Amino acid sequence: MAAKPGIPKGTRDFSPVEMAKRNYIFNTIRDVYHLYGFQQIETPAMEMLSTLMGKYGDEGDKLLFKIQNSGDYFSGLTDEELLSRNAAKLASKFCEKGLRYDLTVPFARYVVMHRDEITFPFKRYQIQPVWRADRPQKGRYREFYQCDADVVGSDSLLNEVELMQIVDTVFSRFGIRVCIKINNRKILSGIAEIIGEADKIVDITVAIDKLDKIGLDNVNTELREKGISDEAIAKLQPIILLSGSNTEKLETLKNVLSASEIGMAGVEESEFILSTLHTMGLQNPIELDLTLARGLNYYTGAIFEVKALDVQIGSITGGGRYDNLTGVFGMSGVSGVGISFGADRIFDVLNQLDLYPKEAVNGTEVLFINFGAKEAAYSMNVLMQVRAAGICAELFPDAAKMKKQMSYANAKSIPFVAIVGENEMAEGKLMLKNMESGDQSLVTANELIAVVKK
Amino acid sequence: MAAKPGIPKGTRDFSPVEMAKRNYIFNTIRDVYHLYGFQQIETPAMEMLSTLMGKYGDEGDKLLFKIQNSGDYFSGLTDEELLSRNAAKLASKFCEKGLRYDLTVPFARYVVMHRDEITFPFKRYQIQPVWRADRPQKGRYREFYQCDADVVGSDSLLNEVELMQIVDTVFSRFGIRVCIKINNRKILSGIAEIIGEADKIVDITVAIDKLDKIGLDNVNTELREKGISDEAIAKLQPIILLSGSNTEKLETLKNVLSASEIGMAGVEESEFILSTLHTMGLQNPIELDLTLARGLNYYTGAIFEVKALDVQIGSITGGGRYDNLTGVFGMSGVSGVGISFGADRIFDVLNQLDLYPKEAVNGTEVLFINFGAKEAAYSMNVLMQVRAAGICAELFPDAAKMKKQMSYANAKSIPFVAIVGENEMAEGKLMLKNMESGDQSLVTANELIAVVKK
């Protein structure tokens, strides 16, 4: 007796219904990317470890899945090296390849390798799985898809504007109400410059974020505890209390940051993005939020994040502008801006709000019941017409008990069942049953097509 | 200066144009699978090595990509074991996971793990990459996609019929002229039984296959050299010389195989499949071909293969019926029948015959030239209408030189360019240029939509 098989922890099988839902998500995002002129690329699941290592910090290096070299992976290793049992060090001897950890580093590698074929600005999107040897937990997987779009080779803020339009369109199509949050790394740098505490910017945003919950006094106490001077805290007050419309916030920031060149640049960029989007009209609110501090080591300009309004869940999309995507591979001067939709979280949100459109999840539309060889032959001919009309349809392959065939239709949520017996064949028709209403009617093949297509 | 990055040998990046072509292939296959009621599943890239090992023979085990365990993979290993430097044996200590080698074993594992949720017959398809540490060579890659469809849990030959219809429909949609070859393992077993040379069946099919090239005498000589008795060779003559229509071939086989129960079963199955398909009418020829002997260790009934008629290339699709898909995982009695489209070869055939439909490969349909902030703002508003009408369009993000923007349109094969200057804005219109004909006309946004959609 063979052992019951399992799958690696942190990985998942996707059933037909889950796949239909996931495809709906990917296709919606893909369609909008196409509308905006983004083109798809794919890169291999395996990259050279020399490409991946050192790009995600020490912690990231540990989370790379490494692939053992084929053949004799011991060659060139001394007994001493082997007996050192230094797992991390020997891994680089045993393995030269690893699974991709995100889509950004492979994209940077792609841009460098294909620089001569690419016409810049390059608007690419990529929807592929990534792998991380993270400790699995609820909502965190070792294999998951990323859906990234980036524009590289253009400094224009119109790219930021279009990415926000993409976000707005995608979530409108999903029917998920969201708030788009926007910030700018340059504003944060300006704040740090003004108060002379450049290294405390994360502490500051964390504290500001608590204003609603703990009140101003406690925020100031927390800032003091983090070692921020009273003078700096005084200067921070208008920023902590920043409120009102985006325009009002920007006015306040212009006053506070007037002495910081970089801060003012961030304000101007945000002003352009927000006012352009205001003119265009988004379906979802967009809000300047200084507490947004994702990827501070990476982003150099605008930073985005999207929050679902009707479900308690973390950020469901994020992104920003970065300089020097490809510098680490020896190609400088390539800046870009990108977004990444969190497909797994969007999946959960759509499930919780029950927002999947029926037609996205439905598969087969008509099941033909099989009563035997003659009826099956008759049905196969009708099926050809039905499928030629673009209707997904199937014949139960075996002349099984009616009950079994009906259960099959139910299990697959097939909305119509076609029943063909002696009488129907004699008349050149078939009995079409609506599985939801229970209504039955005797129809021709063309009538069936009309009813199902409706 | 960083080293120039590369990718693992045998793997590929896919550029936007390649991706568009590949998506056209996958979408065409997927659409037809859906029409026939197949549902998609996905399984993880990584499987437990216990799931994969021993399923593909010794050679296959060596070609598995193994993933090094995270953390201290030396634990539990003695110094002696380490110093033995037995790469194959220690791999199983260092690694417990591997990349999937095909879609069949993961599917079998899926069926066993999800048996309680699955309603049989289960019509599943799966389009995912697989990985093999094969020696890379022209047309053979270490990462490639498989596009499999299988029906499990039904013995009905209608499944074979429908799979042939699927093959016929897919290649008709591609515009690739093919010959569908069909054989049956039971016929081959019958032949072996009749001539008393059960273990020589592959030698026999190889020899028969050479009839056209080397003539009957040389075929018989080769059979004799393979150790087949004169008596058996005499009995084989009608089979070697088998020709004519499928019906004629089946008549000959009925005579030759009349004493073999299994042989006659194979003839009857083939007769049913071919005559049903004849009634339905295929667009491509289907031919009973006894030299078809793929997967003899695996297939137990019908065997299929598809050959392109206008390009010299190996089989571009194949499949067959198998018993006991899941026995190795402790679940017996699950038989099935499946096909697998060879996406990489189909890609090559479509390229060689230049059969990609324009709309499948095209991306952006209109590029708006950027002359500056005011013109860009005007264009962004028109773009909203154009995209809302479902047209893929973009604005060049920077006010770069006209020549650079036109080169961009050319490089991306964008068929229309919209030019917006002072005059156009004053009139509330834009100049639309057809990049192929060079024609220009002053149009409104709605007129642009109508022209581009035509």
Automatic annotation (TrEMBL), chains A, B:
Name one cellular component (GO) term. cytoplasm
* Keywords attached to this entry: Aminoacyl-tRNA synthetase, ATP-binding, Cytoplasm, Ligase, Nucleotide-binding, Protein biosynthesis
The highest taxon in the source lineage is Bacteria
List ligand-binding residues for L-histidine. Answer: 102-104, 132, 146, 150, 294, 298-299
User: Its GO biological process terms?
Assistant: histidyl-tRNA aminoacylation
Q: Which Enzyme Commission number(s) are listed?
A: 6.1.1.21
Group of enzyme by EC:
ligase
Compartments, record wording: Cytoplasm
Q: Which GO terms describe its molecular function?
A: ATP binding; histidine-tRNA ligase activity
Task: Give every Aminoacyl-transfer RNA synthetases class-II family profile domain span.
Answer: 1-350
Tell me yes or no: is Protein biosynthesis among this UniProt entry's keywords: yes
Write out the catalysed reaction: tRNA(His) + L-histidine + ATP = L-histidyl-tRNA(His) + AMP + diphosphate + H(+)
Record-stated family: Belongs to the class-II aminoacyl-tRNA synthetase family.
**Assembly and interaction partners:** Homodimer.
The protein's name is Histidine--tRNA ligase
Its lineage reads: Bacteria, Pseudomonadati, Bacteroidota, Bacteroidia, Bacteroidales
